Amino acid sequence: MTAQFAEPALGGADYDGDPIQAGNAASLTFNWVNSGASTMPADAAEIIVSFPNKYYMTDGATPPTGTIANWFDWMHTNVEGGDTWVGTLNKAVPAFDGGTIVFEVVGITTTIEPEATTIFTQPTGKFDKFLNAPGNDNLAPKAEVLTVLPVELTSFKATLEDCKARLIWTTATETGVSHFEVEQSANGTAFAMLARVDATGSAVQSASYSFTDTQLTQNNYYRLKIVDMDGSVEYSEIFTVYADCASVVSVSEVFPNPVKNELVFIRLNSSLNHEDAQILVMDILGETLMSMPVVISEGSNLFSIDPNRLAAAPYMIVVEGNDWRTSVSKFVKVSK
């Protein structure tokens, strides 16, 4: 029996509207093309697009647009670590034909650094593999989300440095401003004051302020309470600092990524010793495909998994114990 091949390729991925203001929209555009020299049949290929849903995501109901979006039947899922769309080719595509696909996204919460969207194209189960050159079947465009600021502030950001959250904000003018109160929450709802920072009171020039929070949890929600001289208050938008370093166990590195058929290594940092745990490998729908028991020691740990029996696709890795679970890490397996 003659093997069948699908030869799609990706390119040109870019965000229009980066950086994205929290609460505002932006669009992701990329190209998909049949790079083979023959017609690609319907059902031959699919596209998987996974957004980092704690930072920005689609509305989950509106499929993509673009010149070739209707060439695919789209299905949406929303699992831990990714707001994901899967499109299956629904028509025959002539050689070298293709076009653009556009997703509309909305900023959710402030990024510490630009976060990547995973775009992957692969053959369906009806076709054996791709013939296109390595690197043409996966992309990782990045976008940054900034906080929407109240009128008194010209900037407001946070960075994670040595497992500490450093908050920095700048004002343009401060007419009638008494002070700022830095508030923190572990759940995004119940806030408590961490510190009071007095305003300079300048009405004609900018001023800069900073505060460092050393007592972090994994999820840290911050806002500024701006207090005027007359006692009236205004709040900044809430933004989040995710600090895996504050977890009892965290994944610091997954490599190599992308991977072909070599071992995938997972580096963990742990404050626990002799802790029984499981390394779970899941598909983009959250189904566990591999589970490996490990014993974690205090400090740095290095484990490996064999991805040979996994198909070419993006995957998620989570490590969990009796009463803890790491955040999701991702890797992509590519075809040979």
User: Would you identify the regions where 5 or more consecutive residues have pLDDT less than 50?
Assistant: none
- In the CATH scheme, the class of the largest domain would be Mainly Beta
Mean pLDDT: 84
Structural category is: mainly beta
Strand content: over 45%
- How can the largest sheet be summarized? 5 strands, antiparallel
Task: Indicate the topology.
Layout: E1 5-6, E2 8-16, E3 20-21, E4 25-34, E5 45-51, E6 56-57, E7 72-79, E8 82-89, E9 98-107, E10 115-116, E11 118-123, E12 129-130, E13 138-139, E14 142-143, E15 145-146, E16 153-161, E17 164-171, E18 177-185, E19 192-198, E20 207-213, E21 219-228, E22 233-235, E23 239-242, E24 249-255, E25 264-270, E26 275-282, E27 288-296, E28 299-305, E29 313-320, E30 329-333
Description:
The chain has about 325 residues and is mainly beta. The chain folds into three domains: about 5-145, Sandwich (Immunoglobulin-like); about 155-235, Immunoglobulin-like (Sandwich), CATH 2.60.40.10; about 245-335, Immunoglobulin-like (Sandwich). Helices cover about 0% and strands about 55% of the residues. Strand 26 (about 275-280) and strand 27 (about 290-295) form a beta hairpin. The radius of gyration is 23 Å and the shape is flat. The two termini are about 20 Å apart. The mean pLDDT is about 85.
